[in-house]
């Protein structure tokens, strides 16, 4: 909780208090004009389609105590705007604080910076093209074996979301685990700087957001800008910042000396400082030996996917570095059952649904198909794939690449929903795949078809970018709609 005054915010953002009480206590940041937790400051974001300044009146009427504004430079301009508000909005604005700033997002960053400066606990920053959230959760779970852990909530990992995350941090915790995302060049370095991290974990380099970067090499360089968060305000083992790198990723390994900061390598390869060895499936669990130094610790996971073995190795590596007993950390990881719409398993009608619909890239889609093919079940294995977004001019090529991969896999039926996925079907046809492929115009059509064919013992895998909303198929099959 923020617990800072309006005056503190005005000073931090270099703004001007147009009206209102500077002594008012602010406890939360809000970017949603429809809700308030009480004593919020509303930050109106100017987006591509909507300027949230339009909703300032609504935000104040539902309980926000203050608002930023970049559209009003003096009190006269503000009063003119308020005259056009509804009576309810005018009433809600009475006595509230209006802070004029040049840019609301930059001001939000400064509020985040102020919040972080008031909290002294060390932080782990997690970034990568695929698996950030799962790795974040695994690290938090492993550390929680012996530490009180604060972690990124919801999906607040962006230049807008991270300051909200930082506003919730307190010194009641021992350590923070922060997810750091990026959509455009420069964003990661900016939010890493706000986060003031001590440890950085880089999961992998894929092609997510490649339309903004051009090449995977460029994405990799951008990911290494996470070191802008190494402020040196704290030291751990004498280091003012250290990287944990996935040694199975060729791009990360090729550029591992780029920043000059020390690093540790985790993964499955012999040269890794922290290694997963003897990986196998037993009783529905992935099991492996976690090897580091002279130690070998058995680990059992409750989540699906070979890639989660690597994520778990990274989590245990960070736990060891931060002084957590690794055996306790490994035991804690066994209880980790995954994150919403990320390889979540549901059982209904005698069949199994693997919902992996939160987001998608070529790498994660291939990994998910591997999970489907490796899943032990007596019935058929059916995949539903939808479009992958933000792949730029090479979108058709990347979808075709997934199709080439799928053609070599061992499952029973493929259902395609969307526009770009036609390239998956084309690749499978070109490869003379034996797997039947069906095109569906809508997810509703796909759900209706699946309701008619799924039988006891079958396994259904769902994967697409979040915007395709294939999770609605899961809801339909589970009887939630």
The helical percent reads 25-40%
Counting copies of identical and different chains, the oligomeric state is single chain
What can be said about the biggest beta sheet? 9 strands, mixed
- DSSP helix count? 18
Polypeptide structure, described:
The strands form four sheets. Strands 9-10-8-11-12-13-14-15-16 form a nine-stranded mixed β-sheet. The mean pLDDT is 94. The protein has 18 helices and 22 strands. It is of the alpha/beta class and 481 residues long. β20 (413-417), α16 and β21 form a beta-alpha-beta unit. The longest helix has 16 residues, at 306-321. The chain is 35% helix and 22% strand. It has helices spanning 6-13, 56-61, 75-83, 87-93, 104-117, 132-143, 161-168, 187-195, 210-213, 216-223, 250-254, 306-321, 326-334, 362-374, 395-407, 422-430, 443-453, 471-477, and strands spanning 4-5, 16-19, 25-26, 28-30, 40-42, 66-69, 97-100, 123-127, 149-151, 175-179, 199-202, 242-246, 263-267, 274-282, 285-292, 295-301, 344-348, 351-356, 381-386, 413-417, 437-440, 459-463. It is globular and about 70 Å long.
What are the main properties of this structure?
22% strand; 18 helices; alpha/beta; 35% helix; 481 residues; six-stranded mixed β-sheet
What does this entry show, briefly?
This protein is of the alpha/beta class and 481 residues long. The protein has 18 helices and 22 strands. α5 (104-117) runs parallel beside α7 and α12 (306-321) packs antiparallel against α13.
Helices, strands, pairings?
Layout: E1 4-5, H1 6-13, E2 16-19, E3 25-26, E4 28-30, E5 40-42, H2 56-61, E6 66-69, H3 75-83, H4 87-93, E7 97-100, H5 104-117, E8 123-127, H6 132-143, E9 149-151, H7 161-168, E10 175-179, H8 187-195, E11 199-202, H9 210-213, H10 216-223, E12 242-246, H11 250-254, E13 263-267, E14 274-282, E15 285-292, E16 295-301, H12 306-321, H13 326-334, E17 344-348, E18 351-356, H14 362-374, E19 381-386, H15 395-407, E20 413-417, H16 422-430, E21 437-440, H17 443-453, E22 459-463, H18 471-477
Parallel strand pairs: 4-5, 5-6, 6-7, 8-10, 8-11, 9-10, 11-12, 12-13, 13-14, 18-22, 19-20, 19-22, 20-21
Antiparallel strand pairs: 1-3, 2-7, 14-15, 15-16, 17-18
């Amino acid at each position: 909780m923020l617990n800072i005054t309006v005056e503190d915010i005005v000073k931090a953002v270099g703004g001007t208090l147009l009206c209102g009480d500077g002594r008012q206590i602010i406890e939360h940041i809000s970017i949603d004009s429809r809700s308030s937790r009480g004593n919020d400051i509303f930050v109106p974001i100017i987006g591509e389609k909507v300027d949230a300044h339009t909703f300032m009146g609504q935000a104040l009427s539902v309980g926000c105590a203050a608002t930023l504004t970049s559209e009003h430079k003096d009190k006269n301009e503000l009063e003119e705007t308020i005259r056009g508000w509804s009576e309810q909005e005018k009433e809600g604005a009475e006595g509230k604080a209006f802070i004029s700033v040049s840019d609301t997002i930059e001001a939000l960053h400064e509020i985040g910076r102020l919040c972080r400066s008031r909290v002294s606990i060390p932080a782990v920053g997690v970034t990568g093209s695929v698996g950030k959230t799962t790795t974040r959760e695994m690290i938090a779970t492993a550390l929680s074996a012996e530490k009180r852990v604060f972690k990124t909530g919801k999906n607040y990992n962006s230049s807008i979301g991270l300051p909200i995350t930082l506003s919730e941090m307190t010194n009641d915790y021992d350590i923070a685990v922060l997810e750091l995302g990026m959509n455009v060049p420069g964003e990661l370095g900016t939010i890493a700087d706000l986060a003031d991290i001590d440890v950085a974990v880089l999961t992998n380099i894929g092609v997510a957001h490649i339309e903004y970067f051009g090449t995977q090499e460029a994405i990799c360089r951008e990911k290494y800008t996470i070191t802008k968060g190494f402020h040196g305000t704290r030291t751990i083992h004498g280091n003012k910042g250290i990287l944990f790198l996935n040694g199975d990723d060729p791009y990360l390994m090729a550029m591992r000396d780029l920043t000059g900061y020390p690093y540790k390598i985790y993964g499955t390869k012999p040269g890794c400082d922290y290694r997963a060895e003897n990986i196998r499936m037993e009783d529905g669990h992935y099991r492996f030996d976690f090897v580091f130094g002279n130690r070998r610790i058995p680990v059992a996971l409750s989540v699906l996917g070979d890639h989660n073995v690597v994520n778990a190795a990274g989590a245990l590596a960070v736990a060891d570095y931060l002084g957590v007993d690794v055996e306790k950390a490994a035991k804690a990881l066994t209880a980790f059952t995954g994150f919403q719409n990320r390889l979540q398993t549901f059982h209904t009608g005698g069949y199994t649904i693997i919902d992996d619909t939160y987001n998608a890239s070529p790498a994660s889609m291939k990994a998910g198909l591997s999970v489907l093919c490796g899943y032990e079940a007596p019935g058929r294995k059916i995949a539903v794939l939808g479009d992958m977004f933000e792949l730029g001019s090479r979108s058709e090529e990347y979808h075709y690449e997934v199709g080439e991969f799928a053609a070599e896999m061992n499952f029973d039926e493929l259902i395609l929903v969307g526009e770009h996925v036609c390239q998956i079907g084309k690749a499978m046809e070109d490869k003379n795949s034996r797997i039947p492929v069906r095109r569906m115009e809508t997810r509703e059509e796909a759900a209706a078809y699946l309701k008619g064919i799924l039988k006891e013992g079958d396994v259904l895998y769902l994967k697409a970018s979040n915007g395709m909303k294939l999770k609605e198929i899961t809801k339909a099959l589970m009887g939630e709609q």
